[in-house]
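Its record is quoted verbatim for completeness.
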Amino acid sequence: MAEWTRAQMVEAPTAFDAARAIARQLGAQPEAGVTRFAFWTPELLDARVPEGDIFLELLDPMEPVALTRARQRVRFRRIYVPMTRVEDVCVAAIDGVRAGSREQLGHFYAMAWRDRDGGWHRILDPMASSLPFGPMAPAEVYDLHEMQANRADRPYWEGLAGPQPHKFGPVPNILQIHVPTATAGGTLASLAREFDRLSERLRRDLPLEPADELFLGYDAVQLLPVEPTTVYEMGPEFWTESNQGPEEVTVDLLHPDTTNWGYDVVIAGMAAVNPALLETGRPDELVDLAASLHNFSTGPIRLILDVVFGHSDNQGLRALNPHFFAGPNMYGQNLDYRNPRVRAILLEMQRRKVDFGADGVRVDGAQDFTFWDPSIEKLCHDDEYLQLMSDVEQHVAGTLYRPWFIFEDGRPWPQEDWELASDYRAVVEAQRDDDVFQWGPLTFAHNTPFLYGFWLSKFWRIKEMLGVGSHWISGTANHDTLRRGTQVNPKLNINTRLGETQMEILEKAYDNPAVSMLTYVAFPGVPMDFLNATARANWGFIRNQDDRYGVKVVAEEAISLKWQVDEYAYSRPTFFRRLKEMGYATREELARFLEFLPALVEVTDYDLDEIARLLNAVEPPLAGPETFSPRVLKAIARAWMDDMHDYCNVSQALSQLDAGHVGFMRALRDFRHRHPWLRDNYAPVDHFDYVQPIRGRTIFTALRNRPEALGGGQAFCITHMEGGETEEFDPLTLRVPGLEGMGWELALRTPNIGQDYTGGPVTLRDSMGLVFTRGL
C-alpha cells in the first residue's frame, strides 16, 4: 500500500490525478481476509508527529452490542497497530479484522497518535462506511461487498448493463420525502416496508385508500439528505469513554436520536448513512429501500439522493482536519475545493454514497461551490467541480452507470437582487450533458403562493419557463418553499379565499389543485411534490442539536405557530407534550410567550441573560416555567423542536385526507405519464397567457400541441389562480389561438367542480381548473 501510494504521488500526471487514485483507497476496506486502512492526515505533518507515534486503533466489543437499544455500557478490547506513513497518507493492512454486515457487528476503528508527553489523540475516519454512533465516534469496519452481493434488486441493475456505462435521464415526476417524518416509524426500514406494502396491494389488485395514493403515481423518490448530521452541541455524546487503559476501555453508548431536516452536515461520514435514520443500525436499510423502489410491482421507481457538499456546519471542525476548510460562511464553513486532496475526497464520498443504489443525484446549494481567484480578486463559481460531480461513474451489481443530475443553483445568491438576477440556468448551460436539470424559479425558496398578486408578479418567470423550462424541476411545494411560507407575516395581504383559517390557507396554497394542474399540464419540466405538503401535514426547520443558537432559531420559527397550529391541534394529547409539561397548557399561553421572544432576541442582540431578565419582568407573568434563565430558555427551545418534529409526521395527517382531492392529484400524475411530451418547451404554435381584462382575478390559459411526429393532438388547460368568482362562461369559446373548432373532451376537473360538469358554461372560483383534450 505504501509503495503504491508513493508511486501515485510520483507518477500521476497531476496532483489531482494522484489524489483521486489515493482517495479510492481511503477508509477501511476489507477484502480476501485482509482489511486495508488509509487516512489522509496532513495535520500530523503540521504537528511534526513521528511515524513511530502513529497507530491504527481497533476496538473489539467484549460483550454483545445491541444497536437497537437506547443506552448500554460496553467494554471494548483496544488494540494499537503501527501505521506506515507516506507523506500525508497513513496506511495499514491487517488480517483478522471482523467486518460488519447485516448479521454481525464489525470492529470499530480510528487513528490514534501519541504526543511527546505521552498523551493520546484520535483521528476519526471521514470516509467511513458505517457510523452506528455518529460522525464524532469511531467508525465500524463494514463489508460493502457482501452488502452489494446480497441486494434484492440485482436483476434491475443487471438489466441496465451494456458495453458503455448506462446513463440515466429525467423522469416524468418526483416525490420528495423527508424520511423521519414520512412514516410513523421514521426510519429507512419503515419507509421501505411502506413501499413493499403498496407494491403488494397493487400486485394483488387490492383496494387503495387515500393514504396509499399519496405515494403512488411517481416515477422517482427524492430523499432529503440521509447523511450523518450534527450532534448535540452540549451533549450527550453517543460514544463516551471511561475506565480507559492501554488494552481496555469502557464506553457508554447512546442510540443516535437527533432530529434534523437533513442539511446540517459535517461532511465527515458523507459516504455512510445517518444512524438516526436506521432502525437496525445497519446501512443495508438504504439498499433495501432502493430495492423496494426498483422492484415495485407496477414498474421500477427511481431513487434520487440529495447530497450536501456546498458547506459544512461548524461541528465539521471537530471531525475533519483544518485543510478541508476555506473559512467561515453563513452556514458554518466553506470547503477548500481547490485543494486537490479535498476535491478528490469529496468526489469519492459522493461515489461511495450513490453506490448504495441511487439512480439520480440532487446537488444542494450548487451556487455555494466557490473559490477565491487571486488573479482577478473575485469569488468564482467552481463549475469545473460541478462537472466532475456529473461525470462520476457508479458501480452497482456489476453495472457501470452515470446517474441523472439535478442542481439547485440560484446564483448570484446571496446577492441582494438574486431573485431578479438569477436565470436558474447557469449549470444547465455549463455542463456537457444535455440531460442535466436545475430547480426552476417556482421551486426555489421564497415562493409565497398564498399572497394576493403572487401569480401575476411571477408571470415574467412563467414566460421564461415556457421557453427554457424543459430542464427545470417545477412545482411550488418542497422542503424549502413550505418552510419559507411558514415564516411569512400573517398580517400581509393573504389570499383569504384559500381557506377559513391560516392553517387552511397555508395547506391549500402548497397543495392546490389549480397549481398542480398548472404544473402537470401547462408547464414544461419535471414536476416535484413534497410529501408533507400533499399530505397536508406540517413542516418547518427541524433541528434539536443547537445549544448556542437554539433559542434564536425558535424565535425565527415562532411565527409558524400562527400558520400551522390552531387551538384544536395544540389541545390534542399526542401533540406538544413536552411544552405542555413545561407549563404551556394551551396554545394561547405558548403564543403569548412566542410574541415576546422574537422581539427580545432582536432588541437585546441575542443576550440570553437579558432576555431571561425581561421575560421574568413581564406583567401579567408569562405561562411556563416559574423563572426564566438561559438554561430554561434552551430547554424550551429543545422542547419546541422535538414537539414540532413529532407534529410534522405525515402519519398524523392521514386520517384527515380528502379522498376526492388525493384521487384528483393522482389523476394529474397519470395524465402526465400518458403525455410525456408535456415536459418539452413550448413550440411557436403553443399558447400561454392570462385572461384579460383581469377584473379582479388571475386566470391562466394554456394550449399545448403534441408534435405531429408523436401523432398530434392538443391539451387545453384553464386555471383560476386567485381573486373573485367569474361570470358563467364557456372556456372553449375563449379567444385562444388554436382553440377553435369541435372535438374537445373534458379530461380533468378539479374536485371543487361538480362531477356532473362535462363541458359547456361554468363559473370558476379560486383554485378551480379544467383540462380539455382533442385528438390525444
User: Anything to note?
Assistant: The CA atoms of residues 82 and 703 lie 71 Å apart. The longest strand covers residues 71-82. The two ends are 63 Å apart (CA to CA). The mean pLDDT is 97.
